[in-house]
Design brief:
Elements lengths: L24 E7 L6 E4 L4 E3 L21 E6 L4 E6 L6 E3 L2 E2 L5 E2 L4 E5 L2 E7 L21 H13 L6 E4 L6 H12 L5 E5 L8 H6 L15 H5 L4 E5 L9 H10 L1 E2 L8 E2 L3 E6 L3 H6 L5 H7 L2 E4 L10 H17 L7 E2 L1 H9 L6 H12 L7 E2 L38 H10 L4 H8 L3 H10 L3 H11 L1
Parallel strand pairs: 11-16, 11-17, 12-13, 13-16, 18-19
Antiparallel strand pairs: 1-2, 1-10, 3-4, 4-5, 5-8, 6-7, 6-9, 9-10, 14-15
C-alpha cells in the first residue's frame, strides 16, 4: 500500500460518459493491383490526388485520379471523417453514391472510388493491433484491420494449452485458424477435425470418448474415440453448438480433468488434448434457451476469438479472389497460373458484395469465372453469374448505380437492406405471411430473402419452439 495524504482525496480515473477516445483511421487502395498506397488519417484536412498535397500525403498515382481529387477531414460534430469531392474529372463515390455535391461521412469499411481506383476506409482498434510475425499469413491472410486483430489474438492464445473458442459465420475460415493455433502450439501430434453436427446422434458418445467391447449391440471390439486418438495433439470441434445437451457434461469433464470415460467402462483414461472449438451460433442465446451449458461455454471460451465475415474485411476481398484463383489453377494444371483481370466496375461490385457465404461464395465465383476463361480476358459485369450480378437483395449484392441517373421503371416497393429485413423478421417472429404483407411482396420473394440473408435455419428453429 502506498502512503496517502490524509487531507487530499484523488478523483477516480474514469472516462466521462458520452466521451470517446479518438480512434485512428486509414485509407488503403485495393484496386488496381500493384497500387501500393495507404494514408493514415488524423484530425486535420488532407487533399488526395495524383500530385502530393504535402509531405505527409503520398500521391495517388493513377491516370484516372485528378491532381486534387478529393478531401478528407475529421468532423468534430459528427465524430467521423467526411469526404468531399474537389471537382475531380472522374468523380468520387462512397459506397456507390456520388459525393459531387455533398459532404459524405465515412463509415468503417466504406468503399471510396476515385476514378478507377478503389480505396477502403478503416477505423477502430484493429489498426493498433500488435504485429504477429509468428502467425503464418498463408494460413491467416489479409491486411484488413479486422484480420490483424485475429492474428494478434492467435499469437496470444496459441502457446497456452487452454481451450479456444472461434466464433464466426459459416465459411469465414475458422478451420484454417484452428490449424494455425495448432501449428504454433508446439504439440508433437497432429490435429484431428470433426464436425459435431455430422456425428451420429446414436453413437456420438462413443465417437468422442470411445467404448469397450460389448458396451452396446455391434461393439465387437474396443474403440479409442476421438479424444484418445488426439492425445498429444489438438482436437478441432467444429459446430460445437450442435453438441447434444446430454453429452456436454462429459466434454466439460474432459476439459477440467483431462480424463475420458469410454462407454461401457467404469475406468477413466487420462488424455492430453488441446481443444479448439468453433461455432456460427450465438451461444449466449443457446444458453438462455437451455440448449447449451453456461459452465461449458465458460470453459471453452478461456480464449475467445471472433472471426469477422468478409463484409467486415472488404480490403481483403480482392486479394482472396487472387489467392483462390491461383489455388484453382494449381489444382487443375499443377501451376498457380494467372489471376483474373477485373474491369473497375466489377472490382467495385465484388468489394461491395455482402458475401453471405463468405469464402465459399468466393470459391463459387472463381469456379464459374475461371472455367474455360481466356488468359487475357477482362472480366466485365456481363461475365458475372446471375446469382451475383443484377443488384437484387436475393443475390446479396449491392448494385453499383449508373454514372447518370435513369428514370425508375420498376414500381415495386424498394428492396430492404439486410438490416431492415432482419429487424422486421425479429419483430414478426419469422412469420412469412406477415413479412410479405409488410414489404408488399409475395411469399416466394420472402423465402428467397430468408435464404440469401442466412435466416432460413433461424426461422426453422423459431417455428420448432412455437410448434
Amino acid at each position: 500500500m502506498t502512503d496517502s495524504d490524509p487531507d487530499r482525496t484523488l478523483s477516480r480515473a474514469t472516462a466521462r460518459r458520452g466521451m470517446r477516445r479518438p480512434t485512428g483511421a486509414v485509407l488503403r487502395a485495393v484496386f488496381p493491383r500493384g497500387l501500393d498506397w495507404s494514408l493514415p488519417l488524423a484530425r486535420g484536412r488532407v487533399v488526395i490526388g495524383r500530385v502530393a498535397s504535402s509531405d505527409d500525403v503520398p500521391p495517388l498515382a493513377h491516370e484516372t485520379v485528378s491532381r486534387s481529387h478529393c478531401a478528407i477531414e475529421l468532423d468534430a460534430a459528427l465524430r467521423a471523417h467526411v469526404g468531399t469531392d474537389l471537382g475531380s474529372h472522374n468523380g468520387t463515390r462512397v459506397d456507390g453514391r456520388s459525393i459531387a455535391d455533398v459532404r459524405q461521412p465515412l463509415s468503417d469499411d466504406a468503399v471510396v472510388q476515385l476514378g478507377d481506383v478503389l480505396v477502403i476506409y478503416e477505423s477502430g482498434r484493429g489498426l493498433a493491433a500488435p504485429p504477429a510475425p509468428q502467425v503464418s499469413r498463408d494460413n491467416i491472410p489479409g491486411d484488413s484491420a479486422a484480420i490483424r486483430l485475429v492474428r494478434a489474438a492467435v499469437a496470444r492464445a496459441a502457446p497456452d494449452p487452454s481451450p479456444v473458442l472461434l466464433i464466426g459465420e459459416t465459411g469465414t475460415g475458422k478451420e484454417w485458424i484452428a490449424r494455425e493455433i495448432h501449428r504454433l502450439s508446439g504439440r508433437t501430434k497432429g490435429m484431428l477435425a470433426i464436425n459435431c453436427s455430422a456425428l451420429s446422434p446414436q453413437i456420438i458418445d462413443s465417437q468422442l470418448f470411445g467404448h469397450v467391447r460389448g458396451a452396446f449391440t455391434g461393439a465387437n471390439s474396443d474403440h479409442e474415440g476421438l479424444f484418445r486418438a488426439a492425445d498429444g495433439g489438438t482436437l478441432f470441434l467444429d459446430e460445437i453448438g450442435e453438441l447434444p445437451l446430454e453429452l456436454q457434461p462429459k466434454l466439460l469433464r474432459v476439459l477440467q480433468e483431462g480424463q475420458v470415460q469410454p462407454v461401457g467402462s467404469t475406468k477413466t483414461v487420462s488424455v492430453d488434448v488441446r481443444v479448439v472449438a468453433a461455432t456460427n451460433r450465438d451461444l449466449s442465446t443457446s444458453i438462455e434457451s437451455g440448449e447449451f451449458r453456461r459452465d461449458l461455454y465458460a470453459r471453452l471460451a478461456l480464449w475467445e476469438i471472433r472471426v469477422p465475415p468478409l463484409r467486415k474485411r472488404r480490403s481483403d476481398v480482392l486479394s482472396w479472389i487472387d489467392r483462390l484463383c491461383r489455388r484453382w489453377n494449381e489444382q487443375r494444371d499443377g501451376v498457380p497460373g494467372e489471376v483474373l483481370t477485373l474491369h473497375p466496375e466489377v472490382a467495385e461490385i465484388l468489394v461491395r458484395h455482402r458475401w453471405p457465404d463468405n469464402l465459399r461464395g468466393l470459391d463459387r465465383l472463381i469456379h464459374e469465372l475461371a472455367t474455360g476463361a481466356a488468359p487475357d480476358r477482362v472480366v466485365s459485369r456481363d461475365d458475372l453469374p446471375p446469382w451475383l450480378n443484377g443488384g437484387t437483395a436475393g443475390s446479396g449484392v449491392i448494385a453499383v448505380p449508373p454514372a447518370e441517373p435513369r428514370p425508375v421503371a420498376d414500381k415495386k416497393p424498394p428492396i430492404p437492406t439486410r438490416e431492415q429485413f432482419v429487424a422486421v423478421f425479429e419483430e414478426m417472429g419469422g412469420n412469412v405471411r406477415a413479412m410479405a404483407k409488410h414489404f408488399g411482396r409475395d411469399r416466394r420473394q420472402i423465402y428467397r430473402w430468408l435464404e440469401s440473408y442466412g435466416l432460413k435455419e433461424r426461422r426453422e428453429r423459431i417455428r420448432g419452439r412455437n410448434d
